Amino acid sequence: xxxxxxxxxxxxxxxxxxxxxxxxxxxxxxxxxxxxxxxxxxxxxxxxxxxxxxxxxxxxxxxxxxxxxxxxxxxxxxxxxxxxxxxxxxxxxxxxxxxxxxxxxxxxxxxxxxxxxxxxxxxxxxxxxxxxxxxxxxxxxxxxxxxxxxxxxxxxxxxxxxxxxxxxxxxxxxxxxxx
Amino acid sequence: xxxxxxxxxxxxxxxxxxxxxxxxxxxxxxxxxxxxxxxxxxxxxxxxxxxxxxxxxxxxxxxxxxxxxxxxxxxxxxxxxxxxxxxxxxxxxxxxxxxxxxxxxxxxxxxxxxxxxxxxxxxxx
Amino acid sequence: xxxxxxxxxxxxxxxxxxxxxxxxxxxxxxxxxxxxxxxxxxxxxxxxxxxxxxxxxxxxxxxxxxxxxxxxxxxxxxxxxxxxxx
Lengths: 179, 125, 86
Hints:
Helix content of chain A: 40-55%
Shape of chain A: elongated
Radius of gyration of chain C: 15 Å
Oligomer: heterotrimer
Structural class of chain A: mainly alpha
Largest sheet of chain A: 3 strands, antiparallel
Strand order of the largest sheet of chain A: 1-3-2
Order of helices and strands of chain A: HHHHEHEEH
Number of domains of chain A: 2
């Protein structure tokens, strides 16, 4: 009974991915919305099998991220993330062209995330932006060690968690998503 | 109209990829080269994906239904690349630091903590 | 319209050769691994470009599978460099 809920969640995730991959397969005379009925039946069978196989990976974990509202917020989070990404890309590209203002250093961040998912999302966001890369994670206190391309003339200024991104405070967004 | 947008997207992707590979040769040490590689992994692939998406949307709107499938596959490919690129960059940096590759940087906050962190993980295992 | 995809694909292949130079003379093993990671991303970009050039959606599936498999390879080499493998 304990492993029923993870099996259902894994099956739903597998079915959604199957639906995206087979979109547009509807035949002219037989089909529900975008999918033909044969694809739907095979997808259902395969996702039930996948859910039964994968039921053990979510046992004992927190179900906080299973809320659909959080996934909706995660999709909205793409917009400020893209704005930050444009700024970071242009900055690093300008540094490659001119070759000036390269002052590398590793700084320690204490974001104070309460969940593992928040630490994961924050370190992934930091690594995906060019110009900052998370080198190591302290697993107990969830402190990040971030390598920055330009820490500025004052090394102590970057250590605030809100200062690692240039314009928008993404840490606040991540806290809203995962807590 | 769609042709111009697709061409601009392909050109932006080309420019950022070329800059990333140039940075791979120009930057002084390993940890700064990671940021140059990130340039290829973020804008290089995102703008090429955007070009293909816009192109497929244009063909789909002009009446060829098979291109919906194409766009969905491109979306999946972009998501997969974002996740795997992030994780592999972090894995490379972590393994390089733990194998003794130190950056030539002014401030290195990790140097004092790495030994105690390793010992704690050893004890937990 | 096809010409720009052809030119883009050729330039990306030349970039792969440039990364090969970095693999050849990289001072440390980590540099070689990083250049290999960039090559993997470039191969995915080339697959997507070719799918536009030839109008064949099957190339994108190949790109997805290539990204997943090269990810596993990168993780394995990272563990090897860290010294975790026995």
